[in-house]
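User: Fold this; tokens only.

Assistant: Input:
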Amino acid sequence: MNHLTELQTSEAPGYQGISRITKFDGRGLGAATEEASFNPLNDSAGGMFRKPPQMALVAPEFPAAALYGPAGDIVRKLGPYSEAHPAALFMQLLTGFGSALGGGAYFEVESDRHAANLFLAIVGKSAKARKGVSWGRVNRIMSQVDPEWTESRQTTGLSSGEGLVSAVRDDSPGKDDEITEGVRDKRLLVFEGEFAQVLRVLRREGNTLSGLLRNAWDGRPLGSMTKQNPLKATGAHISIVAHITNEELQREIRDTAEMFNGFANRFLWCFSSRSKMLPRAVHPPEGYLNAEIQALRAALAFGRNLGLMRRDEAAEVLWEKAYERLGSDPGGLLGGATNRGEAQVVRLSVLFAVLDCSPVIRAAHLQAALAVWEYCGESARYAFGERIGDPLLDKLAAGLKASGVQGLSKTQIHGDIFQRNQSGERIAAALVRLEEMGLARKIPREGESREGVAWVASSPFEMNEFYEQGGAGDGGGDGNS
């Protein structure tokens, strides 16, 4: 497989690669900014409930398999010329393209319609993550792909539900039975460079913005019930690009209803950092991206009236294999931020198919979508940590993580992690629960344990076994193969 770190290292000296799947530095477990965690294998002092030592998560790396189609080609080609993180570039380009596309291409799951509108949150350090730089690059590209959308269908300043509805409102009755004309173009991308301000607005008593945004992601009719000027909006296609620092995210959303009412998990969380140091401005040659921009224009024209999409047989087989993993619930804040994996991957696969000018979703499109979801899930884990809130489960998960790839048998778990202070029944039940959450799995270990298996830590977002089967990350085809 082509790794993004190899690409960036060869094209941009000074780029510091980071690990593809979030790994741990051995000091404990928790969010990137937390200052306390468990160290289960050195537990003699305080038992299960002692004060844990410090630990930090290591940031995830964007898998090369995600860089599919002309959008992926653009990010590859921009690599030597930008300090922006490739994930931030790519995910914002996907979100912008999906917004400009409108709701004409969609996939149905039972009675729910999933179009290409995404909610994206870029998380990174202020001034150091190059979040604004990445959006500037993307907006300039999209201005060449769809100038009308760039000029008239972007807005900022989410502060009330009424304002959002007004931006995509239907015709409404005025005075003397006159009709007040609504907005004809229902596409809207909301850019929020200071997402923390929006999160503070959501906490105001009586504010309706959270519920309206959830309905907007779902594609449901929107309404504003103010007495003076009641509005409604149907057929709206609303996307969001939001920027926030990790510190703001911890402060503004961790202990709010938005973590668990479906608001947070409608967002794709994307870690961003400076990808390299470029002290001197390096500009790409004139016309450097002309072919890719033309491909994006062609994909927009192809997809705007495509209608209902379906998967081909190979994609259906792959979907069935990945479905259980996508449905894992890691619990706690992480679960609140990611428990919509199936729907997010469906939308991403629609986007990749349209970018390929394909009328059906093929296995390669689904593989690219799974690679993106892996990164977004690991980004959420980096931002929110993976504390479950149950001391026994948290301690068990940390112990398995510390044991590495060899894992531990039940006997070893009983002695090494819990010092024989927990019953076998409780340990067995806890292992089953972690397995259901995607945080632990069994591996064969014949001859070293009576059970013939060991337990190892796992990630509910690890998708490489699905997307490394071939097809994703190689640019894509013409949709007719």
